[in-house]
Amino acid sequence: MSSARLSIHPAFAIGEVDRRVFGSFVEHLGRAVYSGIYEPGHPTADAEGWRGDVAELTRELGTTVVRYPGGNFVSNYRWEDGVGPRDQRPTRIDLAWRTIEPNAVGTDDFMRWCRLTGTEPMMAVNLGTRGAAEAADLVEYCNIDGGTTLSELRRANGADEPHGIRLWCLGNEMDGPWQIGHKSADDYGRLASQAAQAMRRVDPSIELVACGSSARDMATFGEWERVVLEHTFDDVEYISVHAYYQERDGDRASFLASGASFEAFLHEVIATADAVAAKRHSTKRIKLSVDEWNVWYIDDFAGETNLELLERPRLIEDVYSALDAVVVADLLTTLVRNADRVGVACLAQLVNVIAPIMTEPGGDAWRQTTFAPIALLARHARGTALDARLDSPRLATAKHGEVEALSAAVVWNSDESELVLSVTNRSTEPVATTLDHLGFADVALVDALTLLADDHGPRRTAAEVAEAAPRVLDDVHVGDGSTQVTLPPESWSLVRLRART
Ligand code: AHR
Fold it and tell me: Cα(23) to centroid of ligand 1, in Å?
């Protein structure tokens, strides 16, 4: 059996894990909104039409921040269509997904859903077909108390108190040729800076995210970030990262090692942002908003231009396997490990569309395999991420070259006196792993769970998903100064230890 060693000390901190790292995303796409979060007449729906089963699962998932209303959708969205009396709202063609959009859900409605679920909104503005004026108008509508036409309109629409939305995305994936209003880095950077300045004059307290690349393999990646940040460095707190992974050509080893590519991507964006800072002799550090990440079998998607024009079509409803769940767990572990620079992260998406929660119209809501590791990490990865020095066997992969067999994050929750190890074994062998917890005393096991990737493939029913649920990891031995754990092949594990410093 191969072996690995992780060494930690409470003094070696990476940074606080921002609770916003456990975010998600609800886009007007497919059935994410209609028959996802919203379905008037559903047996669990409240008076307004919010599905109670989905709201409850959202809380159980531990979702903190929710990005809205897109995604590609936002780049052709008129926010004015979605406010005011429902029966007077227009029905439009959403060009992003070639879908009939009834506008039954809009900004004020989404804010009520956020309150219902205890989540923080992350609002995107349209910089595809619109510009700085409409973006500033939306901030005024949402965040100004009253006394202006747009803030009074919000009050007349039933939202007496301002929404107080702090986090705003300056458009979406503007580097992508598929994006309505796609732009060059130079054109987008200039527009994003203008929009940012206008929005901030309305509300100086907002936090802003500039669009980074929509994938690491975009031809413009790197140069896009540099040019956009040259324009927006003084205007934004975050640059976005979007990253999706899938198993291709049966190359399971590369898929399991997706986290290695993800981490390299994060570090490349950080390096680019810091290079822009260096050129400006600035100590400001731009953080990452990883506001779309997940496993997505994008090769199975027909493409935006090949879609029949329908209302709430079944689009991108990927069904996940246990293997996918292990990769998702590893991606989230990677985000936690990079706590010093990742300030926001949104799993794309929350319900029905590449989502941990699935629904049937008029029927059940259930958890996909990816739900459990996300919920566990959101619940337990609280506190300070520690710099876990890792000595791991290495693995050869066709796609990412040689990578570490293990990928780990260790979080010290001093409030709860809990040390949490989140660790993926990407290899096909068990790995005897030692966690040296230097500087911690009275260490005792709270519990240990493991999620095994198997060969079952997509798990379509709640019963099939339950068979792949994380199970107790028996082989954990807590000793003086170190804990020994045998990590099963192709698995993700969460080990919780009681400790004091
Ligand atoms: O999450 C699905 C889509 O993926 C989003 O709308 C877009 O931003 C990305 O390409």
Answer: 15
Claim to verify: residue 34 and residue 146 sit in the same structural domain: yes
CATH of the domain at 493: 2.60.40.1180
Residue 103's region, left for phi above 0, alpha for psi from -120 to 50, else beta, is left
Q: Are residues 142 and 274 in the same domain?
A: yes
Q: Name which residue sits closest to atom 5 of ligand 1, judged by CA.
A: 71
> Does one domain contain both 390 and 376?
no
The amino acid present at 482, given as its one-letter code, is S
477 and 365 belong to one structural domain: no
Last residue of a domain, one of 347, 380, 413: 380
Ligand 1: centre distance to CA 171 (Å):
12
Last residue of a domain, one of 349, 380, 411: 380
In terms of Cβ atoms closer than 10 Å to its own Cβ (0-12, 13-18, 19+), residue 444 is exposed
Per-residue pLDDT tens over the stretch 215-260 = 999 999 999 999 999 999 999 999 999 999 999 999 999 999 999 9
Residue type, 251: D
- Number of domains forming the structure of the chain: 2
Distance 305 CA to ligand 1 centre (A): 14
Which residue's CA is the closest to the ligand 1 atom numbered 6? 71
70 plus 128 within the same structural domain: yes
Pair 281, 421 in one domain: no
Residue nearest to atom 2 of ligand 1 (CA): 71
342 with 425, same domain? no
Cβ neighbours of 121 (radius 10 Å): 22
Catalytic residue among 27, 173, 225, 263: 173
User: Mind listing the pLDDT tens digit for each residue in 115-169?
Assistant: 999 999 999 999 999 999 999 999 999 999 999 999 999 999 999 999 999 999 9
The share of the chain scoring above pLDDT 70, in percent, equals 100
Catalytic one of 27, 134, 247, 292: 292
Within 6 A (CB) of ligand 1 lie 27, 29, 70-72, 172-173, 214, 292, 348-349
218 within 8 A of 173, measured Cβ to Cβ:
no
Residue 305: pLDDT band with limits 50, 70, 90: confident
Tell me the pLDDT of the chain averaged across its residues: 98
> What tokens appear for 28 in the block?
């007007």
Q: How far apart are CA 282 and CA 113, in angstroms?
A: 40
Q: How far apart are the first and last CA of the chain?
A: 32
Measured by CA distance, the residue closest to atom 7 of ligand 1 is 71
- The pLDDT tens digits of the residues spanning 418-429 come to 999 999 999 999
Do 168 and 93 sit in the same domain of this protein? yes
Instruction: Give me the domain span that covers residue 78.
Output: 18-380
Does the annotation mark 292 as catalytic? yes
Atom of ligand 1 nearest to the CA of 71: 6
CA of 294, closest atom in ligand 1: 1
